[in-house]
Amino acid sequence: MNEVFKGTFTQQEPIPDEGIAAAMDVLRSGRLHRYNLVGDEPGEVALLEREFAAYTGARHALAVTSGGYAMATALRALGVTPGDPVLTNAFTLAPVPGAIASVGAVPVYVGVTEGLTIDLDDLAQKAGQARVLMLSHMRGHLADMDRLMAICGAAGITVIEDCAHTMGAAWRGVPSGRWGKIGCYSTQTYKHMNSGEGGFLVTDDDEVMARAVILSGSYMLYERHGTVPPAEVIERVKYDTPNVSGRMDHLRAAILRPQLRMLDAQCEKWNARYRVVENGLRDTPGLRIVERPEAGRFVGSSIQFLLLDWSGSRIEAVLARCAARGVELKWFGGAEPKGFTSRYDSWRYAPHPAMPESDRILRAILDMRLPLTFSLEDCAQIARIIRVEVGAVWQAGVSHKDRVATS
After folding, report:
1. Answer CATH for 17-257 from 2.70.180.20, 3.30.450.40, 3.40.640.10, 3.30.70.270
2. CATH 3.90.1150.10 occupies which residues in the chain?
């Protein structure tokens, strides 16, 4: 009898008891707003900012309402204005071009490789078209950051890193978010720390941080932040930087602080699950594993594989067969966006030329979450199901070709 997986792909682990207790203390106080403090107490948000700055090795960290807000704030802090072109990945999720469009700028898409990273050859060709790159480490796939930064440095491009899927990851030991001028992170429920919604911006640049603090809605209470730029820098920018409120509150900060202390251990758990699925899928006929470069330390909170050059109908058959056995796969090649899955040609607010090489890869990407509520045996079962169903559809296609060839 065919195995059926009974788990839920959207079920996260509970908030740690320490976080629940801290959140209850905040609720009992009634003082949820980040600037509602008594005496010289720092408050949960400022403490979280200091701890996240220390974790990433950044001079400054700003806690905000979402990863998308962090990206839009980064663009504003760099002086991106309406009509400015901003380079970004063709393979990403809607909040990335959405952040660019939210400030009136125009996304310029850069292609994707079979390793699911930004195409550095395409980036080099387009480097003269913009002064900012919003780099998405989509689904945790890190490009060769040494080469990327060399391309951007030679062209005078400032890099913002979208690290929604790479909190805890690194390239050659340097944390993601620390290669560019600004790193942006998400703490939305499906990311590596869970506050429902939330995010961070990190930077070593005092002026960028000063503008980001004012933009986040500090009024003139910036001294209450966890990492504070020099007073003279604040004075220089505070009157010409708008308030675009997006502050994190003490409740979310309270549940994030213990999660930050657990983050490295959690990343190891994700990677253990990822390797079980990866090993179970390896050498499946017709399926290509996305190999991870040795220079990168990744976080396997999701897994992607490619069905390169398969027809849409055959991929849909794989999706349906796996779904019937309890395995939820997302497809970036569908004609219409579904759930969180969309492509650059879905975002019609930004004109774009045809990108046939990237289209071929996007049509092939299947994507699956790996929540930590799955056991290693769950992951082995999921891999067995995918392997069988991909193999069945692959073999049916081979058999059909043989029949056509001999008819």
Report:
1. 3.40.640.10
2. 263-401
> CA quadruple 396, 400, 405, 407: dihedral positive or negative?
positive
Where on the phi/psi map is residue 160: left (φ > 0), alpha (ψ -120 to 50), or beta? beta
14-65 pLDDT per residue, tens: 999 999 999 999 999 999 999 999 999 999 999 999 999 999 999 999 999 9
* Residues 194-249 pLDDT 10s: 999 999 999 999 999 999 999 999 988 999 999 999 999 999 999 999 999 999 99
For 294-314, letters b (16+ CB in 10 Å) and e give: eebbbbbbbbbbbbeebeeeb
| pTM of model > 0.90 | yes
Give the class (CATH, top level) of 263-401.
Answer: alpha beta
Q: Give one word for 351, left, alpha or beta, with left for phi > 0 and alpha for psi -120 to 50.
A: beta
**Span 143-163, pLDDT tens digits:** 999 999 999 999 999 999 999
Q: Within a 10 A sphere around the Cβ of 394, how many other Cβ atoms?
A: 18
Classify residue 60 by its DSSP letter. E
Contact at 8 Å (CB) between 172 and 62? no
